[in-house]
């Protein structure tokens, strides 16, 4: 309820999440809320940690301070990511958002590593922890604030599809569990002189390190080039195939230049006997309408396919029958027969699984087996086969 109030109060046109300015307003709101909440939690936990002489509480306090710094970086990162395209960056600066998430992740790891060392020193040279009721209650309240902050960031991250805010939400939920552990150890210290505080401090610190490492893996993936969203792939293929005279599609490539900055290209097969101006109009319309509908930049390449001769129909069916025996082959396309008499080539592309394409010997063996099977069925043909990656 309070989250919705903040969004409606501070984000204009909050439903139009595809707009760059609206995304920026959401990011600013999340960043400011994160700074205020984490600074408040830092002050509370720092005071409790110093009063009680608890290293685990101090570790948790400085973790909150790093989260406040992360929120500042998030705001700066979004502002830089929303810069318009220029000559050096023709597709915009959207990937800065991923780099921002990476910086946040490294900061989380550094805090954790530092407190592993501090907690280890506390185990070697233990000092008593003083339990007080009011500090204990304040720590319990802080857990509730962190839980709400995680849900708030996750809600906004999902709404605007922000990897940075999703990472921040994951980090905050991790803090909920580590803070709970700290509170439990603080309570146990009332009943024992065993230096549990140092051991719990190490557990908390290692959890912070692991959280940072996990966030790095998540944010590194889109920078390296991860597979496109299956829902987006399905939407593009279904929408392209819905247009008249497009009989097949293949070679879909999706480039991610940051949230809301996606470029895609796809090959569309059309019968070769259709008027070139008519099919150009269809392709042009499809590019424009699909780009607008999916908020992407789509380019469609036209592949004319000759399908009206008995020889091509018979040869295509024969190849289809041969390829059906191979589980690695997901589909084939761009099929054509080139040449005449005894000098004929069957030219086509096959889409194979990523594991097959990654292994050069496997893909070479697959091609050799396919060519052998086709040669047995139709010795008059030679094969020219191109291997593509199936999405």
TrEMBL record:
Please state which protein family the record places this protein in: Belongs to the cation diffusion facilitator (CDF) transporter (TC 2.A.4) family.
Q: Which Pfam families match?
A: Cation_efflux, ZT_dimer
For membrane topology, the record states:
Multi-pass membrane protein
- Annotated TM spans: 25-44, 98-116, 131-149, 170-193, 199-216
Organism annotation: Clostridium saudiense
Q: Show where the Cation efflux protein cytoplasmic domain sits.
A: 228-304
Gene3D superfamilies (UniProt xref): Cation efflux protein transmembrane domain, Cation efflux protein, cytoplasmic domain
Q: Please give the InterPro entries that the UniProt record associates with this protein.
A: Cation_efflux (IPR002524), Cation_efflux_CTD (IPR027470), Cation_efflux_CTD_sf (IPR036837), Cation_efflux_TM (IPR058533), Cation_efflux_TMD_sf (IPR027469), CDF_Transporter (IPR050291)
Q: Where is the Cation efflux protein transmembrane domain?
A: 32-224
This chain belongs to the protein called Cation transporter
Keywords for this protein = Membrane, Transmembrane, Transmembrane helix, Transport
Which cellular compartments is it found in?
Answer: Membrane
